Amino acid sequence: MDAEPEARAAARTEAEGRDRGSRRGGGSRRSRGTGRLPLRQSLLFRLLAASITIVVCSVAATAWLAARTVTNAFQGEQGQVLANDAQIYDTLIGYAAGHTDWSAVKPTLSRLAEQTGRHITLTTQDRRPIADSGSTTALPVRASAFVDPLRADPALLRGVKTDGVDPRAVGPYRLPEAERTELRGRAERLQSCLRGVGHTAGLTEAPGGRPSLIVPGDNGVQQKAGAVCALYTLDTPTPTERRALDQLNALVGDCVKRHNLSSVTVGLSFTSTGSGDEAVQQCIDTARREQLAPYVAPPALLFVATPAGSATPGFDLSPANSARVAGVAALVLVLTVAVTVTVGTRLVRPLRALTDAARRPTQQHTRVPVTTNDEIGHLAAAFNDLSERRERMEGQRKAMVSDIAHELRTPLSTIRGWLEAAQDGLAASDDAFIASLLEEALMLQHMVDDLQHLAQADAGQFRLHTEPLRLRELLNHVAAVHRGRADSAGVTLTALTEDAPTLFADPARLRQIVGNLLSNAIRHTPPGGRVSLRCRRTGDQVVIEVADTGTGIAADDLPRVFDRFWRADKSRNRQTGGSGLGLAVVRQLTEAHGGTVSVTSTPNKETVFALSLPL
């Protein structure tokens, strides 16, 4: 057919390459395998195992040494830090309870910082600075506490009840001096009364100025003493407290009314006397905060850090502990270096062999020994396969150059011979002479064009100019062009294109494909034979078939008919073959359209080339 033979040397080179691959002990099979390595054989697993071993030993040694070294120091310092932080929080809550703003808090912060050795910063809730105990530094990510005397933490401050209101936030309940003096007199008389009946009582004064007595003993003793000295009761609110309670009860009344709750009356204990409902108590707590809010400083964020800016303080190791840490670190470093050198040496040795082989001249096609079954072993086997493929490709390249030279030499020799004959006066420059030279020149041009098409396809530069086309008209036109040649060869050419649909393709390239197949079929069909051009639609594909009753193709040769420079006729007879590139061009152009080309043949009976193109 119209495919020239590839050099026999290339075939021998490929066969010898396969033999060498089978004799190499399975290296190629390992590189071509697609299965994963067992985990225990993986190079990655071994590297991870070595690294994890080192890390575990390092962490264990460091953790043990750190735990032994810092435990005692940390416990003592942690207790002091907690005590200092609690002192700072308590002092600032007390300041906020007794002031309406933070404008004068700077001296308090400086005093606390001097006492505790901490850096203290107060900011608003959106982190705008209020005051700082020293130079401004970057704030920690999280605040140490939320300073609000109306929502204090009962776990941090003694005397704060579940409502969160600090007892130092008294606001309108602060007694003037006259009322304080009167209540203090009552308390002293009550204290004397209790002493007279044999009970000792302590006298204290709340932040608002109201005194109270502490009577030791159980409830029975306290009740008996209270019954005897009831004349000097301290529970009655003063005028100042009464005004504040009236204001509070008004706020509570509005709240319980909004929530459809029972009305209550609130006393100095700030608990309801009319209902024990939890919702009522929430109204009391809310109203109390609303009443006290104008008398306390606004909420603030507290940041407590070391002078260096960290949230938690550090500590210094003693010289002995520092030496122990350095010794353990040095031991771990030595072990790490030893393990790394051992593993690295085993890894680098085969990689160096690969590097040396890659740097040798390409003509040598060097192989490297495959000594392991891990990733590096697979790399070595793949390198050996690459060397084999390069060796085979080198043989194919030489064979192709030889074939091209042979194909070009024939028409050039003919042209040269005719021209020399004309120059010597042995051939007349008539129409036949010119036609012969033109035929050989056209053969050269056709061969060069085919080589250019194949080179463009290999380089990915081949471009199609597709458009909708009527396949029936195109096939009939190609058949009409080749019918004259078929008649001259004594071959009957028929076109059956009734089922040809509209196709989206490059019309020039499609005519070239079908024309190559028809020319090939006519050339290999003896006089009296038939060549048929058929078209049919199959699903979303259109199938174009070129069938001939020529000599056919042997079954062993069918897989190679589309190879470049391969021909079934080994004699390279110009009467029965062309350049050996036509069918290779057919395959490239068909695949560029997204289709496929195939061939079936029964020798001396029928050969069918079928193109399948998407609609």
Give a written overview of the molecule.
By secondary structure, the protein is an alpha+beta fold. Among the domains are: 59-165 and 296-315, no CATH class; 170-236, no CATH class; 242-295, no CATH class; 461-614, Heat Shock Protein 90, CATH 3.30.565.10. It contains 14 helices and 13 strands. A hairpin with a 3-residue loop joins strand 12 (596-602) and strand 13. The longest helix is centred in the first third of the chain and has 56 residues, at 43-98. It is elongated and about 160 Å long. The model is unreliable at 1-35 and 571-577 (pLDDT under 50).
Features:
615 residues; alpha+beta; 5-stranded mixed β-sheet; 4-stranded antiparallel β-sheet; 12% strand; disordered N terminus
CATH homology superfamily name of the domain at 461-614: Histidine kinase-like ATPase, C-terminal domain
Separation, N- and C-terminal Cα atoms: 29 Å
Q: From the coordinates shown, what is the CATH architecture of the domain at 461-614?
A: 2-Layer Sandwich
Gyration radius (Cα, Å) is: 52 Å
Strand order of the largest sheet: 8-10-11-13-12
Mean pLDDT: 76
Give me the number of helical elements. Answer: 14
C-alpha geometry: elongated
Largest sheet: 5 strands, mixed
Which spans have pLDDT < 50 for at least 5 consecutive residues?
1-35, 571-577
Order of helices and strands: HHHHEEEHEEHHHEHHHEHEEHEEHEE
Helix content: 40-55%
Number of strands: 13
Percentage beta strand: 5-15%
CATH fold name of the domain at 461-614, please? Heat Shock Protein 90
Instruction: Briefly note the structural class of the backbone.
Output: alpha+beta
CATH class of the domain at 461-614: Alpha Beta
